[in-house]
Structures are given as C-alpha cells and as structure tokens.
Hints:
globular, Amino acid transporter, Proton glutamate symport protein, Na-dicarboxylate_symporter, symporter activity, transmembrane helix, 13 helices
Amino acid sequence: MFALPLGVAIARSHAGEMETNVLLNTLRQVRNALLLLINAVLRTTPFAVVFLVAGAISTYNTSGSTIVSQGGFLILAFVTGVVSHTLLLMPFLFFLFTRANPYNYMKQLVPAYMYAFGCSSSMATLPVAVAVVHQTRQVSRSMAQLVMYLGTPVHMNAAGVYYPLMTIFLAAMSGANDKIGTPQLVVLFFVSLIGSMGTAPVPNAAIVMLMTVWKTVLPTTPLPSSFVYVVAGDFIFDRLSTMTNVHGNMFVTRILAQRYDDPVEAWSDETSEDARTPVPGV
C-alpha cells in the first residue's frame, strides 16, 4: 500500500526525463545491490541447509529410519495435496465452466510447467505462461496478459495446501498438537487464505511466511527444531508450489476467456495484421 503512492510521488517529483531522475536511479541501484546480496545468500543456502539438518538430526533421539520416514511422509502428503488440486479439482472446475476437456488444454501448457519447475518462481515464469496460454488459440493476448499479470501475485493455490499442512506437521512433531483446537484451526484457515494472496511469487518466500503463520496460530510456542524438515524439503516444495500456482492462473485465465473473451476473433485479427505486414526482401 505504501509502495504504489511512493512510486507515483517519485515519478512526479522530477520534471525531466525519467532517466535523469536522481532519486529514482538511486532506488534502482539500491534494489540491484539488494538483489545481489539475496542471490549470494541463495547460492550459499544449500550448504547452510546441510549443516542445519545435520545439527538437528544429531540432537534427535530417534533412529535414522524414523527421520527418513517422517520427512518422506511430509513430502508425500504435500505431493498428494497439490496433485489432487491440480489434476482433480481444477480440471473439474474447468470443465464445469467451459465444457471443454481440461487435459487437452493441459497438454498445451507443458512448456510453462517445465519452466516453472526449473526456475521455481511464478514471476519469472509469467512471460512464458502468457505466451503459452495465448498460443493455445483459446485466449487472446490481451486477456492472457491482463489476467496472468494480475493473478500471479495474488493467486497462490499451493499456499492453501502448504501453510496448513506444514503448521500441523510442525505441531505434531513438537508435541504441540494438543494446542491445536477449533480457534487455532479457524485462525490457520484465515491466515493461510491471506498468505495465498500475500506471499511473494519468488523462490523460498513461503518459508518466511510459514514462520509468520506459526507465530500467528501458536504465538506462545517457539518454532520447533523439526522446521529443518521443511527447509530441507523446500527444494521440492517450492518447485511443486510454483507449478501449482502457474497451473491455477492459466486455468482461471481460460475460464474467464470463455465468458468475457473472443479468442478466435482476436487470433484472426492478429494473424491478419501479421499477414498485412510487409516482409523485408519480399
């Protein structure tokens, strides 16, 4: 809420060209410096996670097989949740509103899924997702750009699975599951709902938000050492979450296009414009 008016004020504070706005250029340089620091931290994160997990495991009074089974159960539970949402719930809603085969549509979106899994960032996948949705010839370019650019920051489907699952898992592992009652579940529901609209669409953002969710649901209980399971599995969680979020945005875009767009006419207009454009050398 503060960034938008600040950006407008900075843009209007200079009468000349934007490139000569000293304050704007200074803020851009600060942003670039912070991005360099963040990238440096991300590059060293795998090494830190190894020592973090090793230290936590050494303090447990459980066997290695138990630790592996607990971590495997967490991954399996999350995979089951996102797969059910991606392959069952969203296709059902897709068919309900469009009366089209959702799985045929999904086949055309494979490049966006692969890119999302590789980069683990919904924002970085956005240009690829917009291009792929438009190339299906079922959504016009303007509709794809409008819905995808608005939906990426606020439409995080995977967060609705991630935050409740991880919170309950941490509570069970720390022996605090007796503190999870109806009031805590209600708070967890609304915090997860807000988190699905407020989590930054960048890598590893969910871990930071998860700590906030934990302190909101159980404010008097410290974050348990089993949090290392979540950190260790974030390589998988984050990529699957990105794919799920991108998948949801592309499906919602197609559903809205069914009601408010005319993709065939839009595609024909763009094709005819391309055909009228003279090709150099011809």
